[in-house]
Amino acid sequence: MIKSPLKWAGGKARVMPQLLEHLPKADCLIEPFVGSGTVFMNTEYRHYVLCDNNLNLINFFRQLTGRPEDTISACRWIFSGGNNAEEFYKRRAEFNSLTQKADLDPDAALLHAAYFLYLNRHTYNGLYRENLKGEFNSPFGKYAEPYFPENEMRLFAEKANDTKALFYHGDFRDSIPGTMRLAHDAVIYCDPPYIPASKTASFTTYGKPFTLDDHRALVAALLNVNHQYGHRAVISNSDTPETREIYSAFNLHSLSVRRSVSAKSRDMAGEVIGVLRVCDDCDSAGGGRCPDCGPVMGNATYGEMFLGFDPAKGCETQEPF
Ligand SMILES: C[S@@+](CC[C@H](N)C(=O)[O-])C[C@H]1O[C@@H](n2cnc3c(N)ncnc32)[C@H](O)[C@@H]1O
Fold this sequence. Notes:
By secondary structure, the protein is α/β, with parallel strands linked by helices. The protein has 2 domains: 1-53 and 170-277, Vaccinia Virus protein VP39 (Rossmann fold), CATH 3.40.50.150; 56-149, Adenine-specific Methyltransferase, domain 2 (Orthogonal Bundle), CATH 1.10.1020.10. The chain has 12 helices and 7 strands. The chain is globular and about 65 Å long. Bound molecules: S-adenosylmethionine. The site of S-adenosylmethionine has 20 residues, from α2.
């Protein structure tokens, strides 16, 4: 397992072997919720499009990839003498004051990336939490000797440059339709914040809640790009009744993993990997784009099948909806 330079809630290191069994071959992997980049680091696609709505995270990846040695040096400098509460809160304030400036010049963006790694490695479990003003407010983690991930940073930068990885900042509602035309033969892997496994767990691990409506919007976006571009989709989520209802267009494979975000959720939580069901013949999901979609997708698709399909043209030439 190749580790990311970042500790990240929901990191996929523990389930990589199972995930690899379900990720189809393709030229490009698109990740709308890239987080630590563990999936990127442990797969072998030729190209990657890596997105997240956390701009500070994307800035770190861009700096590291664009200027690896400068970023590593800046990170080492910010790490030094920083493992005590007083320095942590001083550096956290400096990070937040840089975050507030709309357009950072290249040096400030590099410094911001270095603070980002410092905070990630010195706060508890790498927890990324913001207050209502958008300020990072995770507390000092009290680690005896926080690890400086120099080797991991180098490997990340090398892989990103070798695969010409593209980094985008944005909500999945924009990144999914916005980046799909960058690749002809792509798989989209979505690892959104999970649906809480119990009523007492919260939706808010990453700041803004990721609600059931967000999950529904994600499924709609994935179906839409499947119909438009033929891209296949794989998702991860908790195994809950809501997941099974919302992600019903996916074949859901159960696994059991130990989560590590907070003490409350340390019990064994069920988790699923979902693979978008597509017709063997036309690779389309749930839409009935060719006569073979009927048996695969069920009777519900027959209406659209006969409305939309032109046997003279075949599936490939169907217009997206
Ligand atoms: C479970 S983590 C992904 C973990 C990742 N697979 C890994 O191995 O580290 C979910 C990610 O989704 C991002 N996120 C949350 N809401 C989002 C949204 N609406 N659009 C895009 N990204 C979002 C968070 O910033 C976080 O990095």
